[in-house]
Design goal:
It is built from 33 helices and 17 strands. The protein is α+β, with helices and mostly antiparallel strands. The protein folds into 5 domains: about 100 residues, RuvA domain 2-like (Arc Repressor Mutant, subunit A); about 190 residues, Tex N-terminal region-like, CATH 1.10.3500.10; about 120 residues, Nucleotidyltransferase, domain 5 (2-Layer Sandwich); about 140 residues, Tex RuvX-like domain-like (DNA polymerase, domain 1, Orthogonal Bundle), CATH 1.10.150; about 80 residues, Nucleic acid-binding proteins (OB fold (Dihydrolipoamide Acetyltransferase, E2P)), CATH 2.40.50.140. The longest helix has about 35 residues.
């Protein structure tokens, strides 16, 4: 990677240049983000996965920029306009806007007013005005009245068209206008359609709205732009074009031309230049820069919104699992009944049926009997209840079923369960069951292991995003795929029980190798050693290097195969065990023995660095430790059933269901979620409130009711405490 790119990335991310260079080399060698951040800490100086991901994104940006530069240089060279100075500027930029500004005057153009004027031979007239080499505009123009130029006015109009286009293509003037626009406000006004349409009424907050470009929150901008796309608002930047013209004209007159300052042209020429500039600002330069700044603001909003979505997804995927338990899962409903499934400890479907404990059918006694019989017959240890329609009523019903004391009840988010039910994955796993059974199974399995089940569902269907359909979809997909990959690898995957949908996110594997691993497992039985992976067709040494440390084999031939210690470091563990006078088996999981290991002692002996050695010792003390917390039960306030039951000042338990940049939504046991606005969580933050830093998805909280709007089903909350 070129030095100028390395330097820019290092400055942008506040890391060292050698860290960027080493990451670039590792990526070029086929290494993944999880592998680099976990097993190559000496090479990266201990960069975490977020920092390594950021370096990866910038490397991609500059790789694309290099391709763009090559294309631009070729085009300009073929046109015979490439100078050494221009080549140097193009090759030396790290800013995509600057690159396009440099290219703009040479870009092949469709027919424009300026190109028509140039075709009439009016280029030299525009040059004379532009370079301040004419003392009399009309007198100069008279020399060009011939052929297609019918009059002095025609000549002047053509020259103005050429100069207007030059203003719009001059990099310095474009940057000046950008800086002016960035200091202004993004404003929205209602259109006739928005004012008269019922659908447009939902944007009434933006009918007359404005906020500085640099300060506008992502959710405000995305809402405005969506409304503009739908025709309900007009959105623009409130720049004063007269002041813009004055500033650019001043800069124009003080620009060096031919080794001297251009200076102020005579009044007659000034008038032509100013008119050309005003035309450019209204027709070319102004609209172009306004679109650029709006796009720039949109890109910033996209990045912020995608970051919120990715963080929410990370928290959701790393939700506490109950582990391998025998589960009863219920997809609740009123009229259509509650779909009940029973799963074994591996998540396999054992039984399903439908009960009707709620109105309008209200078969409570048969339902209680059915629940009791299923709990006993299938040894149910935990019950998962979908949190949607009839969810709370079903939990209340279950608490009256006289269940064994050891059976715990959990409310589980069912967002995305219906998507899974109708998906190719759902049909493949349960070809003989209908969508209702598949949905209930998904609810049960996500209680057992949220990560293993949720990877089967498109993250955009999980209900944890913010304006997810309005942001850049490529950026969103990359961020979410990266988040899933990092979560899967941070937890680790059991090689002998994992589905192909989970395996494909393991470092170095992907869909094709995941299928190959499953096929080998089905044909040959369980893996007994990580080394067996090398027997899988098309899984070579590089893929093994990347994936082995993240795959776990419980009860295998080598106890280290159940840990996060990479096979490349097994010899280090063997040396540590030998020095302690014990076997590897005796060392693994023995925290007392591990505390006696002095990592510095093994730097020279093994060639490994202290970060790697420290990680090895920590892992040996608690091998294969799941970083996720344990699942806990939760109960809503028993006396709150409808929005009309709420009174301001009430304090209630709740669960965080979604986090945005303007606040957090909380389920307090009603059909409507309440909102804790950022202003109502200030006491839990120092300085600027960032909701995702204050709260976590599915976190248990206590909130106070601050406002109730029953007509619009809106509940305002204040954060009182959190667990």
């Amino acid at each position: 990677m070129k030095e100028l790119y390395v330097k820019h990335i290092a400055e942008k991310l506040a890391v060292k240049e050698w860290q960027v260079e080493n990451c670039a080399e590792l990526f070029a060698d086929g290494c993944t983000i999880p592998f680099i951040s976990r097993y190559r800490k000496e090479r990266t100086g201990g960069l975490d996965d977020e920092q390594v991901s950021s370096i990866r994104r910038w490397i991609d940006v500059f790789e694309e920029m290099e391709k763009r530069k090559a294309s631009i240089l070729k085009t300009i060279e073929e046109a015979g306009a490439l100078t050494d100075d221009l080549r140097s500027k193009i090759e030396g930029t790290v800013d995509s806007r600057e690159l396009e500004d440099l290219y703009m005057p040479y870009r092949p153009k469709r027919k424009t007013r300026a190109s028509v004027a140039l075709g009439k031979g009016l280029g030299p007239l525009a040059d004379a005005f532009w370079d301040n080499k004419s003392r009399d505009a009309k007198g100069e123009a008279a020399r060009y009245v011939k052929g297609e130029v019918a009059s002095v006015d025609d000549a002047l109009a053509g020259a103005r068209d050429i100069m207007a286009e030059r203003f719009s293509e001059t990099a310095a003037f474009r940057e000046t206008l950008r800086e002016i626009f960035r200091q202004r406000r993004i404003c929205s006004k209602v259109t006739k359609s928005g004012r008269e349409s019922e659908e447009g009424a939902k944007y009434r907050s933006y009918f007359e709205f404005g906020m500085p470009v640099k300060k506008i929150p992502a959710h405000n901008l995305l809402a405005m732009l969506r409304a503009a796309d739908e025709g309900f608002l007009s959105v623009g930047i409130d720049a004063d074009l007269d002041k813009c013209a004055s500033k650019i004209f001043y800069d124009f007159c003080h620009t060096e031309v031919g080794g001297r300052n251009r200076g102020y042209p005579p009044e007659s020429v000034q008038a032509e230049i100013k008119e050309a500039l005003e035309d450019s600002l209204k027709r070319l330069l102004g609209p172009s820069i306004e679109n650029e700044i709006l796009k720039e603001a949109k890109e910033k909003a996209d990045v912020e919104s995608v970051a919120v979505f990715a963080e929410n997804l990370r928290q959701l995927l790393l939700s506490p699992p109950v582990g391998r338990k025998r589960v009863m899962a219920i997809d609740p409903g009123f009229r259509t009944g509650c779909k009940v499934v029973c799963l074994d400890a591996q998540g396999q479907l054992l039984h399903y049926e439908t009960i009707f404990p709620h109105p309008p059918v209200s078969k409570k006694v048969p339902s209680i009997t059915a629940i009791g019989e299923m709990v006993e017959k299938y040894g149910v240890e935990v019950i998962a209840v979908g949190s949607g329609t009839a969810g709370r009523e079903t939990v209340d019903f279950l608490r009256k079923c006289y269940l064994p004391a050891n059976v715990r009840i959990f409310s589980v988010s069912e967002d995305g369960a219906s998507v899974y039910s109708a998906s190719e994955v759902g049909r493949e796993e349960f070809p003989d069951q209908d969508v209702t059974v598949r949905g209930a199974v998904s609810i049960g399995r996500r209680l057992m292991d949220p990560l293993a089940e949720l990877v089967k569902i498109d993250p955009k269907s999980l209900g944890v995003g913010q304006y997810q359909h309005d942001v850049d979809q490529k950026l969103l997909k990359e961020a979410l795929d990266n988040t899933v990959m990092l979560c899967v690898n941070s937890v680790g995957v059991n090689l002998n029980t994992a589905s192909p949908y989970l395996l494909q996110y393991v470092s170095g594997i992907g869909p094709a190798l995941a299928s190959a691993i499953i096929a080998w497992r089905n044909e040959n039985g369980a893996f007994t050693s990580r080394k067996d992976l090398l027997k899988v067709p098309r899984l070579g040494a590089k893929a093994f290097e990347q994936c082995a440390g993240f795959l776990r084999i419980d009860g295998g031939s080598n106890p280290l195969d159940a840990s996060a210690v990479h096979p490349e470091s097994y010899h280090i563990v063997e040396k540590m065990a030998s020095d302690l006078g014990v076997t590897t088996n005796e060392l693994v999981g023995n925290a007392g023995l591990c505390s006696k290991i002095v990592p510095e002692k093994y730097v020279e002996k093994t060639g490994a660095g202290l970060p790697t050695l420290s990680d090895i010792i920590s892992e040996l003390a608690k091998p294969g430790r799941d970083p996720r917390e344990a699942a806990e039960e939760f109960e809503f306030a028993s006396d709150i059933r409808e929005i009309d039951d709420l009174k301001t000042g009430m304090e209630l338990p709740g669960i965080v269901t979604n986090i945005t940049d303007f606040g957090a939504f909380v389920d307090i046991g009603l059909h409507e979620n309440g909102l804790i606005h950022v202003s109502n969580m200030k006491q839990f933050a120092q300085g600027k409130v960032i909701p995702s830093k204050v709260l976590k998805l599915h976190q248990k909280v206590v909130v106070q009711v601050v406002s109730v709007d029953a007509e619009r089903s809106r509940i305002g909350l204040r954060l009182v405490s959190k667990k």
